[in-house]
Design brief:
The structure is a single chain. The chain is α/β, with parallel strands linked by helices and 246 residues long. Helix content is 41%, strand content 22%. Strands 1, 2, 3, 4, 5, 6, 7 and 8 form an 8-stranded mixed sheet that branches.
Length: 246
Amino acid sequence: MTRRNTEQPDASSLGHEPEDRWTFDESVTRVFSDMLQRSIPQYDEMRHLVFDLGRRFVQSGTDIVDLGCSRGDALAPFIGRFGDQCRYIGLEMSQPMLSAARSRFAGQIEQGIVSILEHDLRQSYPDVQASLTLCILTLQFTPPGERARILSDVRRSTFSNGALILVEKVLGESDGIDQVMVEIYHEMKTRHGYSKEEVDRKRLALEGVLVPQTAEHNRTLLKQAGFSQVDSFWRWMNFSAWIACP
């Protein structure tokens, strides 16, 4: 099945000035893909690993769920690979992101295989039966006190042979190591074209909005949620990814 892509070419995020407090507004949505390419280390490789690992857990007739789907970049390869064998559910709160994803998948939404829903994970979890759930750089934007409940809800909604893929920005296990990793990360962003002022401005806007925790804490949350098999499959400094299975 061929995906109908109605997206316009993505604008450059260089020079983008966020609000004092970060929001996924129209200006962010317009440059989001370029922003991720410049801001997330090994971005294309991480995305490839998420798909290559995740596709092995997909079961026909089940849901593939993306928590915080933004413009649909994580769902797109699964839709392209599995087509109408599955149902695809993207959850999002940002109105501009919802509009972009709905436009991107307009054909598949019309066919009834894709749903892009406005949904606040802080309030509830949708009624889904998932073989695969994607949580790509999303949990870090939810209140820390809600994360255990959200992961438990994911586990309860996952088939026994299914999986959750979690990607998060993380803290170092000590303040000293964390500081070194953050410095290297910020140097990476300047190599990707951002000025030091742009890096500092985004960091300040994200304070209190993006709240990372340590890799060990995230692993503990996954185990406590009921995932018996948890393994890390990608790590770059202060970014990490896990596969979790019941």
